[in-house]
Amino acid sequence: MFVEVHTPQTITGQELDAYLQRGWFRMGQTIFTTNFAHVKDKILSTIWLRIKLKEYSGDKTYTELLKRYARFTIVIQPAEITDEKESLFTRYRESLSFPVSESLQHLLFGKEPESVYNTYEVTVRDNGQLFACGFFDLGGSSAEGIVSFYDPAYKKFSPGKFVIYSKVQYCKELG
């Protein structure tokens, strides 16, 4: 199989679990799987990464990041696209050397006003200022990370890693 694409009108947690188990990923409202990706005029093999949460325990990096982030405010809640998050996504996107989605809205929802997925967000704030954010979808017994981004001025704090660890830890706590 080279590529298979679906655009569900609704999706249950168990249906998302089945897609993820078979190596699918979503962009916008489309969920797809492929064996190859076309990047900078090259055809590359795809490798869909999975973490077995029951076997996962935080490592040294996670422990160090938890200490470093103790002074920041971290919130995990159902996803909401705001102007503040779009602005942060734009700053992050402009710092990259490769192309990404034109907006957070487009990346998460495509042309639709809202998601058919059960999408959550992690936000990280420094004295009220949003500097890192990430989105992930919850299935019935699985989850998938969609995107993590941050203010480039905070790069020294490894915010991308912290947001990913936060998603993993939250999902582990949910069981």
Strand order within the widest beta sheet = 6-7-8-9
N-C termini distance: 32 Å
Series of secondary-structure elements, N-terminal to C-terminal: EHEEEEHEHHEEEH
Helical segment count = 5
SS strand fraction: 25-35%
Outline type: globular
Rg result: 16 Å
How does the helix and strand content classify structurally? alpha+beta
Residue stretches low in confidence (pLDDT < 50, at least 5 long) are none
Quick overview of this protein structure:
The chain is α+β, with helices and mostly antiparallel strands and 175 residues long. The protein has helices at 13-21, 60-68, 83-94, 104-109, 159-174, and strands spanning 3-6, 25-27, 30-34, 36-39, 42-45, 73-78, 119-126, 129-138, 143-150.
Structural features, described:
- The strands form three sheets. This protein has a four-stranded antiparallel beta sheet, with helices on both faces. A three-stranded antiparallel beta sheet has the order 1-3-2.
- A hairpin with a 2-residue loop joins strand 4 and strand 5 (42-45).
- By secondary structure, the chain is an alpha+beta fold.
- The chain has five helices and nine strands, in the order E-H-E-E-E-E-H-E-H-H-E-E-E-H.
- The protein starts with a strand and ends with a helix.
- The model has no long low-confidence stretch (mean pLDDT 91).
- It is globular, with a radius of gyration of 16 Å.
